Amino acid sequence: MDDHQFKQLLAYFNLSGKGYRKVRKGVKKRIARHMQSLSCRQIERYLQRLAADETIKNQCAALMTVSISRFYRDRRVWSVLEKELLPDLVAGRTAPVRIWSAGCGRGEEVYSFRIAWKDLRLQRNGRPRLEIVATDVNSDYLAQAQKGVYNRGSVRELTAEQLGRYFESRPGGSRYCIRPELKTNIAWSCQDLVSGQNPPGLFDIIFLRNNLLTYYRDPQKGAAFERVTATLQHNGTLIIGAHERLPDTAGRFVPVSGTNLIFQYR
Ligand SMILES: C[S@@+](CC[C@H](N)C(=O)[O-])C[C@H]1O[C@@H](n2cnc3c(N)ncnc32)[C@H](O)[C@@H]1O
Fold first, then answer.
1. Taking the complete model, does pTM exceed 0.85, yes or no?
2. Pocket test for ligand 1, best of 16, 59, 65, 192 (most atoms within 8 A of CB)
3. Which among 71, 134, 135, 123 is positioned nearest to 97, based on CA atoms?
4. Are residues 174 and 42 in the same domain?
5. Considering only CA atoms, which residue is closest to atom 9 of ligand 1?
6. What is the CATH number of the domain that holds 173?
């Protein structure tokens, strides 16, 4: 598959090429294999098959997703969360704290949050309860997230103490398995941020990092952003990726602690 054909595919799904700069080669290989399995030699024929068959289209859409992540990605975010946002959020609180990891990939962001929450010892007698909703369009990534097994590269930002406390390592030491107690109170579900429905209820914090704002184009991107962020509580927090920015149309978001990654919804 050449770059021109890849661009045709991006246009078909209304995806932006921005997110694919470093991973394009691998994604193109996956798509070429899919085309081959369907005996499609020409991109035009492949696009016709996608248009005619929802299952094939979904398979291709899943192959276009990129799951690169790691624990404690973007240190600044976690530092502001740990030092400022979470202590303020739980002070005097009895209602559950609700978090949505939207486009959670293989779960690194979700378990990072669980680790930060545990490390801070924020609960008193189990209060406030923590409820995490973790969604992704790719069901394979979700299945892997629920298993919670990672390689050394994914956990490289964690301290030795965190690795010892929150992971069991497999014989040989190259795989790190999240301990079962960190897997509780997480509702995993398959959801498309662009065309799906929001999970029910309002959230205190939404992680919307390295997916919608990177890979999609307007008008879908702007519309989905509006819908997703409508689930934020008043004064709720939105966290985006290091190379992302809010859509120009996004009003009522105030940057927190001088970062351009964390915003409060007013
Ligand atoms: C690069 S990972 C980001 C994971 C994590 N949020 C982070 O920042 O480390 C992008 C994830 O977004 C998911 N994704 C892409 N498009 C999506 C969509 N339309 N709806 C839901 N998830 C989507 C992908 O399947 C992938 O798991």
1. yes
2. 65
3. 123
4. no
5. 69
6. 3.40.50.150
